[in-house]
């Protein structure tokens, strides 16, 4: 039985003082011991948010990391920096980073290996564009993204990775994939993991759906057999996030 994981991706929102207010607002709303709750926050918000969630069920994640250990990489943040600041999870390969910052599948593979080597829990994003969906190549595209991302990762390591399926056309657009569309791709991702490793690894790995998930549509999406949680952008900045965390109520 895979534990559901509901993660907020705050993106480039919330100054440190706004972040503290948001944590306070959400505090009474996100209490659900049956779900792993994660706030993935901008680098500058990590330290205040780690302090603010102490004693709660909330885990803190970063939105990115760099794959080198240290040195002359102006503006980047290393795995050791994240760990020392109290971060547990880290998103990698978000379509906004792939698109605006030209991250490649090979970069994401290096980031995944670095995060695992250091003991961070990775959330690896994948997803197709509208054009790719219309061309009928969604599953092939995502299988390729997963195969490259997991190259050189062992089965034991893979079990602790979270994969977020995020169709690009559904991110921040208010257009959600239907639960059938989301389930179809999440199932295919699980099959890909079984092919690369084995069925036991595929059964253990958690797969999230992301793309305009909100309080209204989360229940149906999270009821799908291969959807083990959500990666939530816009709705993670609102009390709605508490409703998603408590989607069964
Ligand atoms: C995201 O960016 O990961 C995301 C899913 O955003 P939204 O929920 O706003 O579509």
Description of the molecule:
The protein is α/β, with parallel strands linked by helices and 249 residues long. Helices cover 41% and strands 16% of the residues. The protein contains twelve helices and eight strands. It has helices at residues 16-26, 46-52, 79-84, 95-100, 105-118, 130-135, 138-149, 155-158, 179-196, 199-204, 218-222, 240-245, and strands at 4-9, 35-41, 58-62, 89-92, 121-126, 162-165, 206-210, 229-232. The chain has an eight-stranded parallel beta barrel, surrounded by four helices. α7 packs across α9 (179-196). The longest helix has 18 residues, at 179-196. The structure holds phosphoenolpyruvate. Phosphoenolpyruvate binds next to β8.
């Amino acid at each position: 039985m895979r534990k559901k994981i509901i993660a907020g991706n705050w993106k480039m929102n919330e100054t440190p003082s706004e972040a503290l207010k948001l944590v306070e607002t959400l505090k009474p709303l996100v209490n659900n011991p049956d779900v792993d709750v994660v706030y993935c926050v901008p680098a500058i918000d990590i330290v205040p948010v780690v302090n603010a969630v102490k004693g709660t069920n909330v885990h803190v994640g970063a939105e990115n990391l760099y794959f080198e250990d240290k040195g002359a990489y102006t503006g980047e943040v290393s795995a050791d920096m994240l760990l020392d600041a109290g971060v547990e999870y880290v998103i990698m390969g978000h379509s906004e980073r792939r698109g605006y910052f030209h991250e490649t599948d090979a970069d994401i593979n290096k980031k995944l290996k670095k995060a695992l080597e250091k003991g961070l829990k990775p959330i690896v994003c994948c997803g197709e564009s509208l054009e790719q969906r219309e061309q009928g190549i969604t599953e092939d595209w995502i299988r390729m993204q997963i195969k490259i991302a997991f190259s050189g990762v062992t089965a034991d390591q893979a079990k602790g990775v979270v994969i977020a399926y995020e169709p690009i056309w559904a991110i921040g657009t208010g257009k959600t994939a239907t639960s059938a569309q989301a389930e179809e791709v999440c199932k295919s991702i699980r099959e890909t993991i079984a092919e690369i490793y084995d069925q036991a690894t595929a059964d253990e790995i958690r797969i999230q759906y992301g793309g305009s998930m909100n309080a209204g549509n989360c229940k149906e999406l999270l009821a799908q057999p291969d959807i083990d949680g959500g990666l939530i952008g816009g709705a993670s900045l609102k009390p709605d996030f508490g409703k998603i965390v408590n989607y069964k109520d």
